[in-house]
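Quick note —
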Amino acid sequence: MTARLADIAAQAGVSEATVSRVLNGKPGVSATTRQSVLAALDVLGYERPVRLRQRSAGLVGLITPELENPIFPAFAQVIGQALTRQGYTPVLATQTPGGSTEDELTEMLVDRGVAGIIFVSGLHADTSADMTRYDQLRGQGVPFVLINGFSDKVQAPFVSPDDRAAVHLAVTHLTALGHRRIGLALGPKRFVPVRRKIEGFVRCMQEQLGIEPAAAEPFIQHSLYTLEGGQAAAGALIERGATAIVCASDMMALGAIRAARQRGLDVPREISVVGFDDSPLIAFTDPPLTTIRQPVPAMGQAAVRALLEEIGGTPAPHSEFVFHPELVVRGSTASAPKAAPPTASATSTTPAKPTKVPKPAKQSKAAKIPRPSRGS
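Predicted structure written out below.
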C-alpha cells in the first residue's frame, strides 16, 4: 500500500498523507486536491474506493426526522418538485422510532452515490450533538444543505425561518387582543429553533407588556413536538393562569386545544391558541387554527438552489439564509376573557393570609361584606 500511496502522490503532485486523507474520506482537503488524487487513481488504473466513485448526477438524498408531522411531507414535496424540475431524482429517507438513525440513513445514501443531501431538522439543530459527523461527510466529497437549525461548527449553507420574529408576531397579535398572561409551549431546550423562540418570546413580552425575563420564565413550558406534548405543556400553562398559548408547532397547538376542552374551556372565547408551521389542513380544524406560516416553498427552493450550486462546483457561502414568517389569523384566537378562568398558581406556594370579615353595621340596609382574598 505504501508503494501505491507513493505512486498516487507522485502522480497527483501531493504528499502521501494527503492521498491517505482523501482515500479515507477525512476532512481538511480542498475539492481541487481531492479531484487531483482521484484523477491519479484513474490514470494509474487503481479502483476507487466505493465511497469515492463517480456519483450519480441524478440522485439527491433528503433526510427528515419523521413524516407524522405534516410540515415534513410539505418540505419533501417542495424539495422533490424543485429537484425534479432540475433533472434530479429525490431519494427520501425518514427516521422512524426504533429504526434507522440519521447517521445510518446518511451512510446508506452515500453508498448509493447520491450527488448531495438535504437535511431537514436534523442533528445539526441539536446543540448537544457531535457536529464532526458533518465534517466527515464533507471529507467524503458529498455536498449538503441544512434546513432549520444553525451551527457555526458546520461548514455548509443553512436555511431557516426567523424563529424570533415568528414568536414576536404571535405575541404582538395576542397582546393586541388584550391578553396579558401568555404562555409558550415548545420542544426541548437543546434545539436551536427552541432557543431562538424563547429569545423572541422573552424580548417581546418585555417590549409589549413590560414583563421582565424572570417573570416570563414560568410561562415557558418545554415538552415534545407532538399532539400529546402540546396537550401536556398547555395543561401546565393553563394551570398557571395563561389566557393564550403560543405553540412551536401546529401539532402542539391541536394538543393545546384538546387540553383546554378537557378543562371545560372554550377556544377562543376563554383561551386563545396560536400554532406554528401552517401545515396542510390546519385551516379546516375546529376551530380553524391561527398560526405562524413557515415559508416552506421559499425555504425548500433556496435549499435546492444552494445544493445544486455546490454540486456544480460553486460552493455556497457558510451562512444562514433566514426567511421571514407570516401571521395567519383564523378562529383560534380572540379577545382576552374579562376574567381569567380559575386556576391553581404554579409560581407561588405561600398561602394568603385570611382576611378578617368585619361585623355588619347596625343599620337598616346591610353593609357590603368584602370577599376574602384568594391565594396568589
